[in-house]
Specification:
The protein is of the alpha+beta class and 377 residues long. The protein has one domain: Cytochrome P450 (Cytochrome p450, Orthogonal Bundle). Helix content is 48%, strand content 14%. It has a five-stranded mixed sheet with strand order 1-2-10-7-3. Strands 4-14-11 form a three-stranded antiparallel sheet. A two-stranded antiparallel ribbon has the order 5-6. About 2% of the residues have low confidence. The structure holds protoporphyrin IX containing FE. Protoporphyrin IX containing FE binds next to helix 13 and helix 17.
């Protein structure tokens, strides 16, 4: 998509797609303020093009698809149990889950960055956080993945992203067997609701939050780990430098996030007429905000198409910006950093087996489905 996005930025900074009836903003200076202007660019009808078009009703609590004041209330509640401090305390667990994926492969000379690490470790991490037994995590991941490789928007709710049916048993079980996990906290936390009443969450509400966290946190992080393998295969000098000095890993992960946004497009419903580039975007339209394109805008990031682990990054938009800024960003960064660090401890050389690699492009994410490589020291 990058040559197309460059042309949009240069030639059609406000683009209208007649066939599918949506507008697109692609420059950093346009995407960034639009992400923060939630009054004009609303998420309440969904933030995925297909969902806005299909007019789907979303249960309360799916904060990705809510506007203030509801969004803020629900986000505050979730932020109370899902704190950066709690996520950072997970580092040793994330390391353990990563080592468990990688150790059996040492000596084999082979690693599929996605199948054997990217699709495994984030799922175990979020599963651990929620308190879901490991033996059941695989089945849940398969279910969640289905919702993200959808053919139609109806599938989105019927068998995927927001279908929480696979969590029902855990929620009910936890309700009677409290532990120190996040699900227990959601079940016991008291909060003030829209009507000003102090109460606990209902079973359905807990289910919604659990499903949201699993849906938003798995596939995106899988994609980040895939891009890490791909980009460092293509930049062997930078890879060797990282292997020699792993203190460079956190900035490398930021650069990977900037360079290949796992969630490249955020859609919004336009709530009032907007004047842009001498044109009117009428209220009621759909606007897509191409955050992945903004990350490659030379007007903001000098020589933006150059991948550089030393780059000083002036806020990439891969986690969004404004009120919907990714709630799991601290966890995603931790997972990306630990994954790369643990890979580099074992291998500093790798080459992708391109004949068996597979790119996946869904309505919400972009990245690798399979990325097998030969690996060595
Ligand atoms: C929101 C990207 C990992 C939970 C977002 C948004 C983006 C994003 C772009 C904003 C969407 C919008 O503006 O409409 C990513 C990427 C990740 C990642 C690229 C990994 C590399 C995670 C993880 C979790 C998570 C690990 C939690 C376990 C959420 C939630 C929201 C969100 C709950 C909604 C926030 C709100 O609407 O207020 N993410 N995310 N994400 N993310 Fe992430």
């Amino acid at each position: 998509p990058y040559p197309v996005w460059r042309r949009l930025r240069d030639e059609r900074p406000l683009y209208y797609n007649e066939r599918h009836e949506f507008f697109a903003l692609s420059r950093y200076e346009d995407v960034s303020p639009a992400l923060t202007d939630w009054e004009t660019y609303q998420s309440g009808r969904g933030s995925v093009l297909e969902i806005i078009k299909a007019n789907i009703e979303v249960p309360p609590g799916v904060i990705l698809f809510e506007d203030p004041p509801r969004h803020d209330l629900h986000r505050a509640l979730l932020a109370r149990v899902f704190t950066p401090k709690k996520m950072l305390a997970l580092e040793s667990k994330v390391r353990e889950f990563t080592a468990r994926c990688l150790d059996p492969l040492v000596g084999s000379g082979e690693l599929d960055f996605v199948r054997q690490l990217g699709a495994e470790m984030p799922m175990r991490t979020i599963g651990f956080l929620l308190g879901i037994p490991e033996s059941d995590q695989e089945a849940i991941r398969d279910q969640l993945d289905k919702g993200l490789s959808l053919e139609s928007s109806e599938d989105f709710y019927q068998d995927g992203f927001m279908d929480g049916s696979m969590f029902v048993d855990y929620v009910d079980w936890r309700a009677n067997n409290p532990s120190d996990d996040l699900m227990t906290e959601l079940l016991t936390a008291e909060f003030t609701d829209e009507t000003g009443t102090l109460r606990k969450l209902t079973r359905e509400e807990v289910l919604t939050y659990v499903t949201l966290l699993s849906g938003a946190g798995n596939e995106t992080t899988t994609r980040l780990i895939g891009w890490t393998g791909k980009l460092l295969a293509e930049h062997p000098d930078q890879r060797r430098e990282l292997a020699a000095d792993r203190s460079l890993v956190p900035n490398a992960i930021e650069e990977i996030l900037r360079y290949e946004a796992p969630s490249p497009i955020q859609a919004r419903y336009v709530a009032r007429d907007v004047e842009l580039y001498g044109q009117t975007v009428p209220a009621g339209s759909i606007m897509t905000l191409l955050n992945a394109s903004a990350n490659r805008d030379d007007r903001h990031f000098p020589d933006a198409d150059r991948f550089d682990i030393h780059r000083r990054i002036d806020r990439h938009l891969s986690f969004g910006y404004g009120i919907h800024f990714c709630l799991g960003a601290a966890l995603a960064r931790l997972e990306g950093r630990v994954a790369l660090d643990e890979i580099l401890r074992r291998w500093s050389e790798w080459e992708i087996d391109w004949t068996n690699a597979k790119l996946a492009h869904t309505s919400t994410t972009r990245g690798w489905d399979r990325l097998p490589a030969t690996v060595g020291r």
